[in-house]
Amino acid sequence: MSTLLNTAVTTQEVEAWLSSEMTPGNTRWFEGPAEPAYALSLQPKLALTAPSVSDLTTILVTPAHKYQQMLGIGTSVEETTINNLLKMDPAARASFIQQLADKENGLGFNLFRITIGTSDFTAQPFYTYNDLPEGETDFELKHFSIQKDIDLSIVETVQALLKAVPDAKIFASPWSPPAWMKTNGDLKRGSLKEGAAYTEALAKYYRLAIQAYEEHGIPVCAMTLQNEPLLETDYPSCYMSPERQRELAIALKREFEEHGLTTELWIFDHNFADAMGYVTPILNDPEGYEAVDGIALHDYDGSPNVMSEIHAAYPDKPIYLTERSLWGTAGADRMAQYFRNYACSYNAWVTMLDSKISTHQWLGQPGPTMFVQDAAEPNRFWRTPEFNLLAQYSRFVKRGAYRIGSTCGSPDTVTNVAFRNPDGTIVMVVINQTNEEQPFRVLCEGKQFIASLPAGTVGTYRWQ
Question: Glycosyl hydrolase family 30 TIM-barrel domain location, by residue (predicted)?
Fold first, then answer.
């Protein structure tokens, strides 16, 4: 009997795909494509066998230890990317969208971030949906309109994405309230004017934005209340204290409920370093806690470990990584850290710049995006290695998957994160940041497999 069981075990197999880093984050990717050693390369299947004695680096996977549930992995649909897309002919545009959407040959993205009005990544003069001549106000929002989003093909592009990915989720983030609502009368810098009248006007403004998108067949599953509320800078931005954000969340939740909207509210939408200090005044207040559905975070300052701290403090409030772009195996490991610290999602920021690193109004020089467009020949665009490294997660980790237990490993050998998909398959992303090939074994529920990851490479392993 035991012989038969062992034979059955050895016939089970593990699928494996590899992608390599190549000059990660380097501006050379704006000059043209190049082929890394591995690019979502399917490997020979590995045998799942009975356990054996081994001196190899060993990762223990425990599916019984179930953590957060995944909402999705995706990118941003900001106006910079859309502006570059519009320079293409319809066939090239369709190919680009297919590469975002395709679950077999593309990225398989299912979560997209849109902006309410303009962000810093735009080719346009900054605008909101309620811009007025200086000195005028519009508390009834009679002049509200998303017509600019229609004219700039933002609405059309998001509609095309939803057609390509019918199960996609869309969430939205504002960079600034309309200027007439702000202390300095400008989309740059400043803060929301004091008083309930302005809080309620802004809540109504956001409610109208969500309704306008829904009228165009674009349901918005969630919105953040202010992109980077602790930043005032020379592009659309708005300082918003946690106390003020709590007031806005309560007013906006009331607006949504009165108009039958189920859009969730995610607070903060800024860096790890300031997260705990910002969310506690909101979530320790009973009304604030009730109004909030989740917590959004960026990774430009601080440690992902704060997400575990927030999860321990507020276990019923899901955490979302709403903005960061990452490069190379260090980036793939950082992404694993997000998920190991309770992030339910990941969204890259900016999907396609052109070979002139344009067009945007950010105040620095961006690193390479997952796609780069040839500025001289707009129908031509290429993938950077980040496309492959992102797809090592996004193609395989399905919505509704749970992160499961796994020992984390070490940057000196391999690190990892593991998930169980709704269909029961286990997916494990393993990262080798070293300059040497790293052999390792995985022990899971009475079985093992042995694999080896080349230097500077990420592997995704999937088994039943």
Answer: 72-352
